[in-house]
Amino acid sequence: LELWPGALAPERFGLEGERPLAVLHLAAASRNKGIDPAKTLPTLHWLHRQGYRIACTGLAADAPTYEGLRSASGLPLANLAGRMALEELPGLLQRANLLLSLDSAPIHMAAAVGTPSIVGVYGATNERQWAPWDPVGRIRFEPVYLSLPCRPCHAKECATNQCREGLSAGQVLAAVQRILPGPEAIGGLPVLTAEP
Q: pTM for the whole thing?
């Protein structure tokens, strides 16, 4: 796989400027990897208060999910689902300070282009097996998962989906807060505490 990270025109998507950028990717080929998008709302609000622009990626079929998040949050999310070509994604990820993603290909693309902070949400899948490859230690990676006796799991159907349903919005937010660098690393922006 060859990645050409320079292929993105940020102004095409309203992403030009110096503010830090977070990318949200809630799409995956397997529906068994998904979480309730509302579990990202506290994180999106926190990132916005920190001064981050937030871009959402996926296929055109994922666009309504992000429109729902934009409506529920009242935040100016850049919904790029279905609006950018696959070859533009590495360029976006290279400019990003943070990727928050389900266990999906963008995690590995972000590692390949050097996105400095990656939070991966792992439901049934193995966070060690599917962690981003980083042999030189240049990225910070934080997996979000529940320690359950039944995971990792490869079942196509599950009676409880506890590995996904049990993940909380607070776990996602805590992972993002743990992984992001101090304000000096992102242009001197103040770090604010999360609202209860």
A: 0.84
